Structure formats: structure tokens, C-alpha cells
């Protein structure tokens, strides 16, 4: 089923169908099929360590367990913060128009890690919104297809190939450039020995390690 997103901008609503973009769609893919001596396709399966049970496809799954090793139903799990306080639940954004927010700078966009990209096929497109995107503006919108606990941004942008929705999350790493100097912590190298071993290792290279 095709997902639909509605975006409001200056009191006009645009409607798009979301088409996921992934490596398979861009580059195609190959599937390697194992067959037996009669050219019948083989299916994957697992054998338990004791060899007593044969587990076909769909017989195994991921489980959540507590400290006692008891299985926990996924519906009983709750997201908490570092102080074990429950996180607020954010509703889905589908089903009603989402406002295109402030224009994001290229630097702001690049400070995020891309999670997923969609091509937007316009069913109804506001000309003003299209002209802004074609001019290079990057707009923020809210896009949350399922209930979540974090407000990760989504970006709306366009190029000569079309209009795209980019799901992202804030990057937690600081940028390190080629010309950036590294600040050394005071006393970080005080343990270096007199021979220049910066890690303070004492290696005893005896006759067994002599080089001719």
C-alpha cells in the first residue's frame, strides 16, 4: 500500500505519494539461489546443537528477556530516559497535513545523519512550494509514520530529478577537519618512558627476537 503525505505551506496543501529509495531501486540486485541435484530450490533451516530438532524458516525469532531470563512481551516494554523515567509518546503524523516549517540551512541539514529517503510523486502540488524547493530551499516537516518517543526531523528538498523527503536524526559526533588542531589533555603523555614509548609499555626484546 502506497503511503501518502500531505504538506501544508502558506495555507495551501500539497499531496504526495512516498516512494522509498534504496540500494536495490538504484542499482538493482542479484539473488543467489541454492538448488539440489534435481535443480529444486533449497530452503534454509537450522539444526539445534544437540541435533534433535530441525527448525525451518519462520521457527526462530528475537526475544526480550528480563534479568531472570523470563520472556517479556514486546507490548509490556516501555521507553525510559537515563533516570528510568518514562518518555512521552509522540503520535503518528500521517492522516492529516503537516506544516512545512522554517527553512533549514545547508549546515543544519549536514549536521544530521540520513535514515531514509523517499521520492515524492505529486498528486497535488502547490506552485509556491514547488518554486521554493526548486530554488534550493530546504524545509523542515514532521514525519512520523509510527508512534515514537523522539522528535527526529525530516527535510523536504528538490533537485533536477524531483522532490524528496529525507528522514534524519541529529549527528552525535563533532566534525573533525584536516586543519583542526588536537588539544592534548594535561599530563596525557607523562607516562611515556625515556625511550619514546608513548604508551609506557616495557618490552623485553631478548635473543629470541633478535634480527639478523
Which secondary structure elements does this structure contain, and how are they paired or packed?
Elements: E1 3-9, E2 12-21, H1 23-27, E3 46-47, E4 54-55, E5 64-65, E6 71-72, E7 98-99, E8 103-104, H2 106-110, E9 112-124, H3 127-134, E10 138-141, E11 154-159, E12 162-170
Parallel strand pairs: 1-7
Antiparallel strand pairs: 1-2, 2-9, 3-4, 5-6, 8-10, 9-12, 10-11, 11-12
Written overview of the protein:
With 212 residues, this protein is mainly β. Helix content is 8%, strand content 29%. It has an eight-stranded mixed β-sheet. Strands 3-4 form a two-stranded antiparallel sheet. The chain has a two-stranded antiparallel ribbon with strand order 5-6. Strand 1 and strand 2 form a beta hairpin. The radius of gyration is 27 Å and the shape is extended. The chain starts with a strand and ends in a 42-residue tail after the last strand. The mean pLDDT is 81.
Jot down its keywords:
212 residues, mainly beta, 8% helix
The tally of helices reads 3
The portion of residues forming beta strands comes to: 25-35%
Secondary-structure content class: mainly beta
Mean pLDDT: 81
Q: Any idea what the shape is? A: extended
Spatial strand order of the main sheet:
7-1-2-9-12-11-10-8
SSE sequence, one letter per element: EEHEEEEEEHEHEEE
Radius of gyration: 27 Å
Span between termini: 72 Å
Question: Helical amount among residues, as a percent range?
Answer: under 10%
Low-confidence stretches: none
